[in-house]
Amino acid sequence: xxxxxxxxxxxxxxxxxxxxxxxxxxxxxxxxxxxxxxxxxxxxxxxxxxxxxxxxxxxxxxxxxxxxxxxxxxxxxxxxxxxxxxxxxxxxxxxxxxxxxxxxxxxxxxxxxxxxxxxxxxxxxxxxxxxxxxxxxxxxxxxxxxxxxxxxxxxxxxxxxxxxxxxxxxxxxxxxxxxxxxxxxxxxxxxxxxxxxxxxxxxxxxxxxxxxxxxxxxxxxxxxxxxxxxxxxxxxxxxxxxxxxxxxxxxxxxxxxxxxxxxxxxxxxxxxxxxxxxxxxxxxxxxxxxxxxxxxxxxxxxxxxxxxxxxxxxxxxxxxxxxxxxxxxxxxxxxxx
Length: 337
Ligand SMILES: C[S@@+](CC[C@H](N)C(=O)[O-])C[C@H]1O[C@@H](n2cnc3c(N)ncnc32)[C@H](O)[C@@H]1O
Fold this sequence. Notes:
The chain folds into three domains: about 5-110 and about 215-295, Rossmann fold, CATH 3.40.50.150; about 120-215, Orthogonal Bundle (DNA polymerase, domain 1); about 300-335, no CATH class. The protein is elongated and about 75 Å long. A seven-stranded mixed sheet has the order 3-2-1-4-5-7-6, sandwiched between helices. It is α/β, with parallel strands linked by helices. It has helices spanning about 15-20, 40-45, 60-70, 85-95, 110-115, 140-145, 150-160, 165-175, 180-190, 205-215, 215-230, 245-260, 275-280, 300-320, 325-335; strands at about 30, 50-55, 75-80, 100-105, 230-240, 265, 290-295.
């Protein structure tokens, strides 16, 4: 097994991420996919003095690496080993809201891809696991060996956007049990008649399995909805995705929220941001990255509530009442710290 810390993970679109987050000294940020802590360290540097960061990752190994990497930032950083599907509950638990910015850098880290025991890649033979966290129950082997042929074909077509899904599913079912990455890659190669073009024929099926094992698309949708309520006004939401299914969800979400009758977001970059040729040369993993960013705005209804509550609190003050709880609630909900 390759040690996780022996491999370096280069943060993707780093400069663009910091700009899109509009990181400022004293700001409060959430990194929903802290990984090896590359983006997190840069956010902490730029938000110094006084910046704070809550870093979340479902993978306990990533949290170990990030803990080591971010040790120097002491009390400015809190790391949590949980799934970002619970984003709001985590922030409420640690009283970490409203925030100036939230980052999701989706998918896998180089550490996970190069870890020979996790089964994310067919570059090395490993058990078909693919779970971000060992606390999840279903592995890729469970799906491959227990789902029906039709279910496997559907999954490969939907999450892998693979045109040869039926043929691949038929071969998988014929070859079962399949326990390792190389066994699966070989089965797919037989089903498809080998490599056509630059992409290995197993690439899309591996992507589909990983998405299914980790409920990646459902979790992303749920987290985006929660993120919006955690942002203070003018707080930034930044998402880096690595395949079209993820990017479609992010694009639709930001568009809907910015075009609604009562919009809660304003798009920062109308056109998606992608890495330069130089970055791709330096870090080939970045080639499919797409960054989208939006800013939280107050819709009319929220503005109305702020004004009304403010008036009420002033009236209460005028009557000699002190309502620190109400004021604190107002400050929390509507004013940046
Ligand atoms: C591309 S890496 C992040 C790398 C990080 N930005 C850095 O600079 O080191 C993605 C990370 O997100 C984590 N992840 C993916 N989906 C997650 C989820 N639903 N909840 C929590 N963490 C998740 C993965 O475990 C992985 O460590």
